[in-house]
Structure formats: C-alpha cells, structure tokens
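Hey, sorry to bother you again with one of my protein questions. A protein chain has come my way and I'm curious about its shape. I'm sending you its amino acid sequence along with the backbone structure tokens. I owe you a coffee for this, so here goes:
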Amino acid sequence: MPDLIPASDCTKWRQLLSAIAPVDCSYLPEYHLAYSLRIPHSKPLLWHFEHGNDQLLYPFLLTPVMVDDEVTGYSDISSVYGYTGPIATTTSSEFLKNAWKAFDDFAQQQNIIAEFIRFSPINQTERFAHPKTQVEANRTLAISHLSGSEEELLQKIGSKTRNMLRKAHDAGLTACELALPEYLPAFRALYEDTMHRNNASEFFWYDDAYYEKLLMLKNGELRLLGVFANEVLVGAAMAIAHGKSALYHLGASLPDYARLGAGNLSLFTMSVALMKNGVEFINMTGGRTTSPNDSLLSFKKSNATGTATFYIGKRIVNPAAYTSIQEKWEETT
C-alpha cells in the first residue's frame, strides 16, 4: 500500500531513501523543509509505493491553488528548487504502471490538478516519470565527475581556471573549510552583498528560517568553503552533500577579489574537499537563463569537468479542473 511521509519525519524519509543509492542530495528531507518555506502554504511530502522487492519514491511540495487569494479546493505539486523527481529501484514497465495507477488514485483524492517536476541529472529520474508527463530539456548544467587525485582534477577543469587559481595564489588568497554555524553570519553578509550588487530578485534571498532548516542536515552534509585575503572573507561556496553526490548551492565573492580568482579558488577547494569525503558527482547547476551562452553557466563550466542536460516535466492531472481554474484566474487579471 502507498504511504505518505512528511519531511518532518526525517528518520522515516531517510530510511526509505537508503534503499536507493547513490541518490541526489536534493532528496534529503531537511532540504525539503528549508525550501518549503519559500512556497507559501506548501507541505513537503514523500509519496512511497512498494510492491514485492521494488519501491518508488516521489518527493514533492503539495500546495493549495489560490485564485485572487481565495482557496479553490484544489492543489498542485512541484519539485523543490533542486533536482529530484520520482525515483524507483526498477524500470520495470509493469511495476511503474502499477505505481502510477496508485498515484493517480492519490492525486484524485487530494484534488491535485497539475504537477511540475525538476528531474535529477545524477539519477536521470525522467526515466521513471508518469507516462503522461511532458518531459522537456530545459538547460545545460555544469557537472563534475570526481575521481583520482587533486592534480588530476586540476588537469580536467581546463587551462583558464588553472590560470585563475595561480592568479589567486600569487595574490596571497588562501582557502579552507569553514565551521558551521560559526561562519554562517560572515557568509550571509558576503552573499547578501553580492545579491545587492547584482540587483538580484527576491527569489535569490534567503531568510533566517531557511538557513536554520539547512543547519538541520547531518554532520558533513552542509559544507562551507571560504577564501580569505589576510583575515577577510572575500569568497565562499556552500554545498549540500549526501553519499556520493553533492550540489553547489550558494556562492559569492567580492568583485575586486573575483577578478583575482576568489570564485575559482572557492569552487576548486569545495570540489577537492568533497572528493576527499567520497563524493563522486557534483552538480554545479546552470546559469541564470536557459541560454547556452549564459555568463554564469560559462563560469561554472570552467570550474567543472563536464556538462549534463537538465530536464523538467509537466503534467495536467485533472484537465477539467485545470481549465476551470485557469478561466477563473484569467477573469481576475
């Protein structure tokens, strides 16, 4: 029988995840608790289907659909801003058919009208999508496959980045891992200064509650690497790690030191530290836009060993209700 686990039950959620390895670190319950704070009224849930020795896990945010601030009685579901999607222990068509039939029954009971999925490039979870899901290639991601030594990684990331790392060294910049939560205020000040300078939208700002949830991650799963000029923090990278996978989550640097390679040094130091702890795959994520020439993507690619395609999924679960809600929404705009 299917069951539904709230992210607040971290023990049960993690126990179910352990059946699938390696699994993208975005699946962690604490990350879902953090991100749900950014979507008003959303509930982070893990839908679990099991038959015989096989399992399907599907984490999502269940959110009431509102029109002009009024509750409609319907909900939608979406992935966290990360890389998850449904994941299973098998690609058996018969198993997936039964799992999705059970899920459709659940969706009907919950008055779910639509879903939006961000698929994991590590686990290639688009393979497990509902057969009626519209799967689309969205953008390019920078990724790193980690193996071997620090010197081998240095050779894989390219000459431009190696030059920037030498420039950082010549400028006297140093890098090391920073203790959490002690260095979180300094990182936040650096990050928020960077967002101010870039006129970043509200989406890229994170409040106290968000960081408090991230700090609930287990020891070694939230990592912070800093770059210093003398004793001043001038660059930093925050990563989430779990098992063999990691996600570059947030980063920042002061402009004068970015030109001296502070950003490159923070990412390289992060990659080396994660590699030494058994991480084999880092998702450096993509750019600010879907353009293949996006400047942020170019920077990340120069600090990674390769690229991957990011896929999204869309599905209208209840077409009649979806159309009705859409018409109501159009009447209010």
